[in-house]
């Protein structure tokens, strides 16, 4: 009974808000949706499409192009879910190309803290990549991977006035552990001529996935700090640099951290934003070639404020 | 047409017709302008937003350097321009002033912000 009471008050707390901020706001701060690292807020939004391309560091190099779509929906003002899918096209050097869909990805996120004065957001979430739902031709995992994570966003609008031109800066970040449901995959191949069996064991470590984005909002500069009378479209630009890293934690010799540094720019309008970034590998284990990622991202809460762009529960009309 | 171009075109065709409605209201420009230094005291603070707003649920407040509210608490919109909001000021002396605005756009999105301006001696 006591547990039932706790659940009741928890649901009440979730539903009791009447603040209708929607996508990426904490006080005066608008956080754009970042391209390479997950953002900290819960929102009604649609990324359609996100396109990335890079040459991977295997023998001869394989050009990998991913075209993905993700839709996120608020269930309550603080809790949202997301579903995503990716079409991957692989073009190996001097071999036939392959393409297929990756595993289906689902996620849930709960916004724990939102502080307007200090432009701060903290959220927790869990993502799951459902094994076996993707195509083996592009190497989709046959096992499921869970990833609990913590997200944060901090705008620097509370800096003192002498540092006012640093107020448009903001930092968002994520740290999560990808936990595969299978510790290893065993592949047996038989030589047809000698009938010898070759057993190959691929280990799947838990992986610390971490990253952050440092951004400078010209929108914030213009409307909060100093009207520089900048022309369109410069007045709505958000230059940023993202760091997306992966560190294996266990199962065999722990490999080096791999990842990319992605400098780029986002233009944010009323109903959508467009972003483009370079993808620069941090070391040779990640790759030797620079790639590119671009995204068209729609704010469903602004496009459809009275229907699919609002939380299903807990928002006063 | 390649697949990424098709997806991009399809998403624009599906979603852009919906873009006739309103969105989150941002400050477009103001008088006095954000962060400005003016020689003569303004009679009012006027803010133009990117969206039409609900004046009943929107406000502008002006505070002096000591944190005392100095505006005439008569926030109102311009009947001919629903995206503009203004508040009257008494005759202010030289100093730094902070403007805090909170608005609800006509589609119920709430936004807020603040900026400073300075009256020079």
Task: Summarize the structure in words.
The complex is a heterodimer of chains A (317) and B (121). Chain A has 317 residues and is mostly beta strands. Chain A has three helices and 17 strands. In chain A, the strands form three sheets. In chain A, strands 3-4-5-7-8-9-10-13-14-15-16-17 form a twelve-stranded antiparallel beta barrel. Chain A has helices spanning 2-15, 218-225, 300-303; strands at 25-26, 29-30, 45-56, 62-74, 79-92, 98-101, 104-115, 120-130, 145-155, 169-180, 184-190, 197-203, 207-216, 237-248, 258-268, 272-281, 291-299. In chain A, a hairpin with a 2-residue loop joins strand 1 and strand 2 (29-30). Helix content of chain A is 8%, strand content 50%. Chain B is mostly beta strands. Chain B has one helix and eight strands; from the N terminus they run H-E-E-E-E-E-E-E-E. Chain B starts with a helix and ends with a strand. Classes of the chains: A mainly beta (317), B mainly beta (121).
Brief write-up:
The complex is a heterodimer of chains A (317) and B (121). By secondary structure, chain A is mainly beta.
- What form of chain A results from the Cα inertia axes? globular
Spatial extent as radius of gyration of chain B: 19 Å
Strand line-up of the largest beta sheet of chain A: 3-4-5-7-8-9-10-13-14-15-16-17
Radius of gyration of chain A: 22 Å
Question: How much is the average pLDDT of chain B?
Answer: 86
Encode the helix/strand succession of chain A as letters.
HEEEEEEEEEEEEEHEEEEH
How does the major sheet of chain A shape up? 12 strands, antiparallel, barrel
Using a beta-carbon cutoff below 8 angstroms, give the protein chain pair with the largest interface and the number of residues from each chain.
A-B, 40 and 34 residues
Task: Give the number of helices of chain A.
Answer: 3
Strand-residue proportion of chain A: over 45%
- The rounded distance between the terminal residues' Cα atoms of chain A is 33 Å
Largest sheet of chain B: 4 strands, antiparallel
Into which percent range does the helicity of residues of chain A fall?
Answer: under 10%
Total E-strand runs of chain A: 17
